[in-house]
Amino acid sequence: MFDKDIYVSRRARLMESMKDEFILLLGNNEAPCNYPDNAYKFRQDSSFLYFFGHSHPAMAAILDASTGEEVIFADDVDIDDIIWMGPQESIAQKAAAVGVAKSEPFSKLKEYVGKAISMGRKVHYLPPYRNYNKILLNELLGLPIASLKENSSVKLIKAVVDLRIIKEACEIEQIDMACNIGYAMHFAAMKMARLGMVEQELAGIMEGIAHQQGSMTSFATILSQNGETLHNHSHHQVLTEGRLFVVDAGAENNMNYCSDFTRTMPSSGKFTQQQKEIYNIVAAANNLAAGYAKPGITYKEVHLEACKVLAKGLIELGLMKGDVEEAVAAGAHALFMPHGLGHNMGLDVHDMEDLGQIYVGYDDVTRPSTQFGLASLRMGRELKAGHVITNEPGCYFIPALIEKWRAEGTNKEFINFDKLKEYYTFGGIRLEDDLLITPDGCRLLGSKRLPITPEEVEENMGC
After folding, report:
1. pTM over 0.85
2. How far is the C-alpha of 166 from the C-alpha of 172, rounded, in Å?
3. For residue 192, is it left (φ>0), alpha (ψ between -120 and 50) or beta?
4. Domains along the chain with CATH numbers
5. Best CA proximity match to 452, nearest among 393, 397, 380
6. The predicted structure's pLDDT at residue 155
């Protein structure tokens, strides 16, 4: 955990922005894998972690912004728990460690919430995403489970987002650590890839490093020679001559901060000319975005500038045609990059997306688009110093999407469909780095940048 003063300050700032309100924050419980005593690795709710620091199952808290009262609810262990788990701190000790003076058994939570309701006070809670918390909220508030999300507090969501989205110095230090673990994961895959290996072998090596140096992976590892499938979690194929494999993976360190990198490598260790041409376009888009991102502009603007680099490169190769500006405005480039440039990152790899992407990636000025491709941009709002975001342009050749656009005549004035037949077995390329927005620009997170040019990748591959 951080020093208790950090948690005290965070809660004080939250209550200041939620004047006179009654706030309920729920932690997570253990989730059984296949029977109750065999649970998945426990992961605390990120907002609970942010304000209370404890990665302990079955905790909840209230903050009464009208009185300043703070209470943590959880149960002390009994002798059976001690036999299996060893001696544990009391809940009162855990509360004191983060500056909370009062703790109560979990069963008392209903009494406190019921009292607030009986006084006519609104109970502000965040959108629940785990079923046991939905059931708990149903019991506490009497709201139908199906209505819990729509009745969650927009005021509290916005207050939490405003705090969590700008990273403190202590958080940036942790994210740098997580990025260094991510670097080790990706560099190991780069060094150990060999023709004839099964993708799962490389994925296992990477995930072993995540567990060795941190808490776990920050999301399910993507490692596949079918890189045109954006989130391909299948690892069954054998590394084969002439193919590319996309590796999108990250680490969560022991303080639960995350990293998220992507590199694309030739299975044989050497790019073909066709692969290198597309790779260089994606690398140029990545570098342009890193040079362009700074406070005062929106990430939507950065996204569109990166898309222009992609379109320009594809026009030069004859895969697209027409004017770059017009093609991007029409969304023609999204045939090749149907996703956004990046997302926020922090205690979650897609930071705070449980709170609603509309509140995290956008604001009252910058709103989401409905255009194909641009609609998938998760982070579009104005950049400020302290934002942590991913920069992940890509270029994919998805035969089903190409054929759909061809049949419909979508953006036919900008796409050379006949030329694309040469790329139906190409796969895809994505290159992703993690960025910290600084007062005058941005910097890469982590101590070193993963090899990025084709020459650096080939030089570092052990094939």
Report:
1. yes
2. 10
3. alpha
4. 4-164 (3.40.350.10), 169-460 (3.90.230.10)
5. 393
6. 98
